[in-house]
Amino acid sequence: MPAQKENLTPALPGDGGSGISSDRLQAVARGDNVPTEVHQSVFEARPVLKINAFSLWYGTKQVIHNISMPIPRNQVTALVGPSGCGKSTLLRSVNRMNDLIQNVQVTGDMQLNGDSIYDSRMDVIDLRKRMGMVFQKPNPFPMSIFENVVYALRIDGEKNRSVLEEVCEISLRGAALWDEVKDCLNDSALKLSGGQQQRLCIARAVAAEPEVLLLDEPCSALDPIATGKIEDLIQELRGRYSVLMVTHNMQQASRASDYTAFMYLGRLIEYGPTSDIFTNPVLQETESYVTGRFG
Ligand SMILES: Nc1ncnc2c1ncn2[C@@H]1O[C@H](COP(=O)(O)OP(=O)(O)OP(=O)(O)O)[C@@H](O)[C@H]1O
Ligand SMILES: [Mg+2]
After folding, report:
1. How far apart are CA 275 and CA 258, in angstroms?
2. Burial level of 223, CB count in 10 A (0-12/13-18/19+)?
3. For the domain that residue 286 is a member of, what is the CATH number?
4. Residue 272 domain-assigned?
5. Can you give the pTM of this predicted structure?
6. Residue 76: inside a domain, yes or no?
7. How many domains is the chain partitioned into structurally?
8. Whose CA is nearest to atom 10 of ligand 1?
9. CA nearest neighbour of 79 among 220, 221, 216
10. In angstroms, what is the span from residue 81 Cα to ligand 2's centroid?
11. pLDDT mean for each 10 residues of the chain (295 residues)
């Protein structure tokens, strides 16, 4: 398949004065193949999702280059990297939302709990029901708070009021929103603040019991207080849900995730436990990025 060189090359750390070498990133920018540093402990965790030699092209432009990575079960994994490096594209590839874009081609595969995501026999509607996705901007449906949360159950034909009420309460408690909305469940979700709407979207995703929860910069449209609440919520989900989260915010990645993957121009550069990536990365390039020296 044709590969076209990206025209968007993030500024690299220079070696002038700082002593930082960015050989590997310069090699990537030239279009060379570079090895990925994946820490051994990543392979020791039980995966919920496996990304296997996955590449993606928009038309003739290749934006994901042969990425392989397991995503650990019941842990939070953060995808970080400069703007345009393919984080959202990789996330959208997991639930095959990129199918909706014309001229997208992929090679390789992903597996959700052992099921091939890109197998021609995979029912994409069914696949998407097995995952939850939360975007940058909260997108509550124009209906009541209650109906937003139980939406997936309604689609599945659940009519038992007590089941719906129970799931609604558990999900809203799980999303740390119950106390704020328990007396106005029949009000429109659109009346909530941005931060409350985002927690509602997470409650809606959690209510469907997703095998993986995909979060694409879930705090970027929120103020610091609402952001703090979402970060607390992500901490709460830890251990119970498998979360794959894109973030631009290094503090957020270091606080809220168990594993961190650093991407650059469509390649996976280094991937390991968050504590290692932030305090003892294998590559100087990773250290430069997570300490804010470029990107
Ligand atoms: N629908 C599309 N058609 C063509 N090119 C696209 C499309 N969506 C994204 N791209 C390109 O693919 C590359 C990766 O984009 P993507 O949105 O995945 O990056 P990102 O890492 O999420 O960036 P950001 O941090 O800015 O959100 C970019 O060069 C972008 O311009
Ligand atoms: Mg993005």
Report:
1. 8
2. exposed
3. 3.40.50
4. yes
5. 0.91
6. yes
7. 1
8. 58
9. 216
10. 10
11. 49 48 84 91 96 97 97 98 97 95 96 97 95 94 98 95 96 92 98 95 94 95 89 90 95 95 97 97 94 85
